[in-house]
Each structure stands twice: as structure tokens, then as C-alpha cells.
């Protein structure tokens, strides 16, 4: 019996000398998988036009009902999206969202997808209703939001504070006068200012 | 100096009173532990170091633990407070009288003489409260009086027979306790499966055979 | 007439040491033990983490070194939730006896050899100068003293379990105290072999008798028996069923919170230190050096203290290593192990040792 105990202790000792597998968050970050469903991104085409045509299929597909799309007619002289309509207001309640990805599956133009960002905490609930300015990709630096193994991040959150939006979403009964530039700014409240690195398809799974 | 003996003795006496007068039986037992501890301190101060540790290990640490277990588990109820009546008065008078008589007897020098108490060979010990001086060296006879070598030597030579008889007694009592508390099982009583089937005849039909490979 | 102060106080060191040294030693012992117990909790967590391939506390202070302070502050500020039907006196007495007995047992443990301050060592005394003994009190049966105080410490478990007016506490307390008093015998029997070799129950003399070979070499079985029984004495895995989280909630200290629980915790870790200290003193040569060219009496005996602490630390590490390696004993198997395996093996050890010593003497 002593031999078995000694063997067990030898094994434990060997494990003690191994390097721990802890990832020391937030200094180190664990990379996310390519199909990780984090905070949403509204994409553009390469020429700068928004992909979203304001069809509201995502809002219909959402099981929770956290998407609000306010569509508007495209000005023919200055089209925002290639089509008749574009989304003038696009809001997602990040608190209600269950990050299931049904909106991304439903979208006919692959405008809305879910990106790698998952550190979305804030102290103020109203800040967690993401508006179009937060979700829309930056342009012309769109390489940032493509699914590439780059850690520069995705979405409009890299550009600083968004401009004012006309009014609040009708689904959200907040008081007037609240700054509805919703999504928490990186660097505030200890929210890390970088975005998780996405694993490229030819990379092995993180251990 | 003697201050410690006074304090320890007083504590021993007070806890002894606590043993008798405590309404809760568990408090009585714990007061007895305290009393034993105080006596052990007196042994230590009088240089009987082995007796000190043995008192704590055996008496306070084993015998009284047993007492405390039993009292706590069997939970005798809280007694009513003692009433001051004729019985109480007789008891107190008797106890106080015996105590005073003992103190006077010891004070006036009725002590053992001869081989039983070796200290007397060194100093004058007819009156133990005064005139008592003893040898402090490791070879001093009093120092060995409570010491391990002395006790052990006597135990295995002069007092070997009582020692062995006592250990035999303990062994017999342990065996007796185990035997008396064994679970008695009627050899004709049905085993578990039959008892279950008697309750639930349906079980027999629901039985399936499972092959384990 | 009692000739002098030192006559009646030749026990302990009150006659030779004087009240100032006694007070200083007491304060040092209490502070050192409390700090040791606190940092043992951190060591436990770090070692547990390494065995589980993680890092352990490393946020509070560099490498987590202030974590015990944070834990202590947390314990102090926690609410003292106590059950309503408790026995108020015994509920407080439990942790008090636990902490108190644990610290008191350490009083007779010498951490280094005799140091002559300003004089010369001559034989077993000091010629001139002041003889500094590194224990607080000295009885010539100091090994038994430690055992006696730890056996009085059993009351803390039982009273804690009983006073809390909860059946889980009572059962846990009962099991804990029964386990402790059973393994006390195994501890004693394991130590007797070494005592026979040393010819004394005085811890200082036992260490000095190991100056050419340590008793662990001469009595390997006794060392293993003692270490195993000591694990059971301190309620450590694999013998910690009475306080295992998955079993009786938390056993005897279920109904304790805040600093009262802290005291039980303190008592348990200080008991670990005491038990490992006895193991080093009796089997591993105490303060005697492992590398013979680093003498123990350098730096006024502090190197001896260093050797002592190194050995105690190694044994504590082994205790924690075992905790995260072995599964837990079931309680009935625990009791039968103590009575049916450790005790007879201890007796066999005593018989063999006694026979060899007796035959060599004749």
C-alpha cells in the first residue's frame, strides 16, 4: 500500500512542477474561437456602403426581441446601402440579447454578425443598449473588423464617442436626456481597451 | 511562591463546588475537568512533573472526555436549583466539618514517615507548611520521587503483580463491553431480500436478469 | 522555609530566566505561531493550486503574500451568526480552548540548542554568561507535556459540536473527538520507540542524543506511524471526514462564523506546526544540521532555529502534498485503521526496539 501512496505522491509532485495553465486575465487574454458569438457588428461593403438594407428580418428572427430596426428610404443621390432601404436606426439591447446568432443566420446580406468582443459590463444599464454607431464597422479601416487574427478590434468602438442619435428606441422606456451613446467605451470603468484575438482557421485550438 | 498553590487550590475548590452545585450536568463534568487541571498545576509546582502530565493525559484527557461524551449524548435534563432545606444544611455542615478536620490534622503534622515519603530524609518535614526544603538537583531524591524512572522502576519490579492484574482487569472490561453491546441477530430472521419480497410481492415479477460482461 | 523563588520554580524556567525573558519568549511564540498559521493557509492554497495546474492567490500583494492579511480582515468583519438555542458559555469556550491549547502546547518545544550568551558552553551547561534555552517552559517530561496539552485540546472539538445545538455539529464533534482520542494512543506508541533509544522524555535531550544518527534512520516504521497518526490527530486528509465539506457540512465548526471560526482554523494549523515540530525533534534531529559544516550554534543559535524551521517546513509541505494526493478515509475504516493497524504496529515497534536495546545493554 505504501508503494501506491508513493506512486500517487510522485505523480502529484510531477504535476506541481508543471507550468500552470492559468490565463492571468486581464493582463493575458485567451484567444476566442473563429465562430465565437460576442458583441454584434454591422458590416459594410468594400466601397463603404452599409450592407444592412433595413429589412428587419433579424428583428423578426430574434427569439428575445432585443433588436430594433428603424428603416428609411435610401436617398438616390446619396445611397447608404445598395437597395431601396437602409437602417436609419439600429439598436440592440445587449442585456436582453442571448447571443444565439439567429439574427446573423437570418440576415440576407450578411450585414449583422457576432464578433469576438465579450467584455461588455458597465455600471449603467442604459449604456448597454448598443446603437448603430456602436455596431457599425469603422471605415475606411475595415480590416479591423474582418475576421482576421488581429487584435485591433472590431466595430465603431475604436473611433471614440459616437454622435448624437435622434431620440431613444421606443422599446426602451428610459428618461429623456440620457446620453444614449450606449456601448461602454473601452478604457472606462476598467473595461479593457482591446478586443479578444480571434483564432485563424489554420491555428490549433487554445489549450 | 506559594501564591500559585493558593490560586490553584482555590480554583480546585471552587470548581469542586461547581461540580456539586451546577444545575446542568455537563457543567458539572466540565467543572470537574477544571478541578483536575488545577490539581495538576499543584503537582507541577511541587516538582512532580510526571504526575502533572499523567494527570492531564489520563484523567483530564481520557476519563473525563468519556464522562463528557456520555453526559452530552444522553442529555440528562437540567436539574432544578438546589433548595436550602434541612437536608442541604446537614450536608453542608458535614462537608465543612470534614474539611476543617482534615486541614487541622495536616497542619498539626500527621504525615507519613519512613520509606513512604523520601523527602523527609533531606529536610524537616514534620510540618509540611514550614521547614520544607528539598534538593533541586537531577539526582535529588525528591526530584525523582515523581519522576518517570522512579515510577517505572517501581511499577515493573515491586508492583509488577498489581500492574498486570490491573491491565488484565481493563482488558476483561473492554471485552465485556464489546460483548454486551454487540448487535444480536436472530439467526432465523429473514434476510433483507425476503423481507422486501414479503412487503412487495410485485417485486418478484418485475425482476430482470442483467448480464454483465 | 522555602529558601528562594527558584526553589519552587525550578520547574519551568521562571527561576533561572527571569520574568522579562519569559514575557519576551511568550510574545515571540504567540506572534510567530499566529503568523505561521496565517501563512500556512496561503501555502496550502498555493500548493493546492499547483497540484491542480493553477496559480493560487497572486493578486493581493506580490505573489499573494498579503492574502492572509486580507483573509484575517475579512474574518474580523464578518457577521457573527450564531444559532439561537446554543449554550452560550460552551459556544465561546470551544474556539478559545482550540486556539489556547494549540498555542500552549508549543511552550515546551525547544527550537534550538542551548546557547550561552557571553560565556562558554561547558558540558551541558554554561560556564559564565547567560544560558539561553530556546523553549519557554521546561519540564523533564516535555514530550509528554505536549501530548497532555493536545489531549486537553480534544474538548474544544467536542464542546464546539455540542454547544451549537445542531445535529450535524454534534455528530461531527463526536466523530472528531473519538478520532482524536483513538489516535492519541497510536501517537504515543509510535513515540515510545524513539524515547527508548534516547533514554529520556526531555525533548532537548532527545535531540542531543541524535547527534550522530537521526532516529528516523533507526526507527523508520515509528516515524511513518507517528506521521500517519499525527495526520489523524490534526484532522487532516486523509483523515478529515469529520470536517469534510461534502460530508457533515463542516462538522463541529458548522455553526461558527467570523473570528470564532478563525480561532478553530488557527488551532488546527498551529496543531499542524506542533505535530511537525515534535516529528522533527524526535525523529529528524531537531535543530541539528543536515549539512555538518553549517553548525547550529552559529549566529547565537539562530542557524539551529533555521535548520529546525527548514525541517518543520519540509514536513508541513509533505502534509499538504498528501492532502491533495490521497482520497479520504471513511469514518469506520478510519477508526479500524487506528486501532487495528497503527496500534499493533506501534506495539511491535516497541517490542523490537526494547529487545534490541535490552540485548545490547546486557
From TrEMBL, chain B:
Keywords: Cell membrane, Membrane, NAD, Quinone, Transmembrane, Transmembrane helix. GO terms for molecular function: NADH dehydrogenase (ubiquinone) activity; quinone binding. It catalyses: a quinone + NADH + 5 H(+)(in) = a quinol + NAD(+) + 4 H(+)(out). The chain crosses the membrane at residues 6-22, 29-46, 52-74, 86-106, 159-180. It is a multi-pass membrane protein. Pfam families: Oxidored_q3. The keyword Cell cycle does not apply. One of its GO terms (cellular component) is plasma membrane. It is found in: Cell membrane. Its EC number is 7.1.1.-. InterPro entries: NADH_UbQ/plastoQ_OxRdtase_su6, Nuo/plastoQ_OxRdtase_6_NuoJ. NDH-1 shuttles electrons from NADH, via FMN and iron-sulfur (Fe-S) centers, to quinones in the respiratory chain. Couples the redox reaction to proton translocation (for every two electrons transferred, four hydrogen ions are translocated across the cytoplasmic membrane), and thus conserves the redox energy in a proton gradient. Belongs to the complex I subunit 6 family. This is NADH-quinone oxidoreductase subunit J. It comes from Candidatus Amunia macphersoniae.
From TrEMBL, chain C:
The keyword Oxidoreductase applies. It is found in: Cell membrane; Membrane. Keywords: Cell membrane, Membrane, NAD, Oxidoreductase, Quinone, Translocase, Transmembrane, Transmembrane helix, Ubiquinone. It is an enzyme of class 7 (translocase). GO terms for biological process: aerobic respiration. Pfam families: NADHdh (PF00146). Signal peptide: none annotated. The keyword Ligase does not apply. It is a multi-pass membrane protein. One of its GO terms (molecular function) is oxidoreductase activity, acting on NAD(P)H, quinone or similar compound as acceptor. It catalyses: a quinone + NADH + 5 H(+)(in) = a quinol + NAD(+) + 4 H(+)(out). Its EC number is 7.1.1.-. The chain crosses the membrane at residues 20-42, 89-109, 137-159, 180-201, 213-232, 269-290, 302-322, 342-361. One of its GO terms (cellular component) is plasma membrane. InterPro entries: NADH_UbQ_OxRdtase_su1/FPO, NADH_UbQ_OxRdtase_su1_CS. NDH-1 shuttles electrons from NADH, via FMN and iron-sulfur (Fe-S) centers, to quinones in the respiratory chain. The immediate electron acceptor for the enzyme in this species is believed to be ubiquinone. Couples the redox reaction to proton translocation (for every two electrons transferred, four hydrogen ions are translocated across the cytoplasmic membrane), and thus conserves the redox energy in a proton gradient. This subunit may bind ubiquinone. NDH-1 is composed of 14 different subunits. Subunits NuoA, H, J, K, L, M, N constitute the membrane sector of the complex. Belongs to the complex I subunit 1 family. HAMAP family: NDH1_NuoH. This is NADH-quinone oxidoreductase subunit H. It comes from Candidatus Amunia macphersoniae. The gene is nuoH.
